[in-house]
Design brief:
Elements lengths: L1 H5 L9 H8 L5 H19 L2 H15 L5 H17 L3 H28 L1 H8 L10 H24 L3 H20 L1
Helix pairs in contact: 3-4, 3-9, 4-8, 5-6, 5-8, 6-8, 8-9
Length: 184
C-alpha cells in the first residue's frame, strides 16, 4: 500500500555526510535522558531495600507531575518552529520559543510548589502512611524536573540551527551530574 501511494525510489547518498553530522549526536539522547530519569531508583536500590525504593518512587512520581505540561507543548512546538524557521521567520521563531518557555514555567513552577506543599496529604491519599515518609523528596524532584525540562524546550531551537552536538553534550552533562548527585 505504501509503495503504491508514495512510490519507491533508490536512495541518494549525496547528502549523507550532512545528515549523519546532524543525526548521529541525537542517537544517544534517548539513553542519556533515560539515565537521567531512571538512575535515581537504581542507586537507591543499590544502597537500600525495595521498601525504600518504593517510598522514593512514590515521591518521585508525585514530583514528576510538573512535567505534564511539557509533553503536549513539545509535541506542538517542534513542527511549529520548524515551519517558521524554514519560512525564514526568525523573529517569530524566537518569540514562539520564548513564549513556550515562559508559559511552561508559569505552570511548572507553581505546580512544583503545590506538589511540595501538598506532598504528605497527596502521598497519604494515593498510598499509605508509610509512603508519606518520602514527602521530603518531592520538592527536590519537582524542582529538578523544572530545571531538567526547561532546556528541553531550548533543544528544539538548537536542533533548528544544526547544533545537535550541543544538545548531546548538555544531556551527557545532565546524566553524569544526576548519577553523581544520586550517589551523594
Amino acid at each position: 500500500i505504501i509503495v503504491h501511494q508514495v512510490g519507491f525510489a533508490i536512495p541518494k547518498f549525496t547528502n549523507l555526510k550532512k545528515y549523519l553530522k546532524f543525526g548521529l549526536p541525537l542517537v544517544p539522547n534517548a539513553a542519556l535522558f533515560w539515565i537521567t530519569i531512571a538512575s535515581s531508583g537504581y542507586v537507591i536500590g543499590y544502597y537500600y531495600d525495595t521498601q525504600q525504593v518504593g517510598i522514593f518512587t512514590a515521591a518521585y512520581t508525585l514530583g514528576n507531575m510538573v512535567t505534564f505540561i511539557i509533553g503536549p507543548l513539545a509535541m506542538v512546538l517542534s513542527p511549529t518552529i520548524s515551519k517558521l524557521y524554514i519560512a525564514n521567520k526568525i523573529d517569530e521563531t524566537k518569540r514562539y520559543l520564548e513564549m513556550s518557555a515562559k508559559y511552561a514555567m508559569m505552570v511548572m513552577i507553581p505546580m512544583a510548589f503545590g506538589a511540595s506543599v501538598l506532598a504528605v496529604p497527596l502521598l497519604r491519599i494515593f498510598s499509605t502512611e508509610e509512603y508519606a515518609k518520602g514527602a521530603s523528596v518531592v520538592p527536590l524532584v519537582a524542582f529538578a524536573f523544572v530545571f531538567l525540562y526547561f532546556p528541553q524546550l531550548m533543544y528544539a531551537g538548537l536542533n533548528l540551527v544544526n547544533k545537535t552536538k550541543i544538545v548531546a553534550l548538555l544531556l551527557s552533562i545532565t546524566a553524569f551530574l544526576n548519577v553523581l548527585l544520586n550517589f551523594l
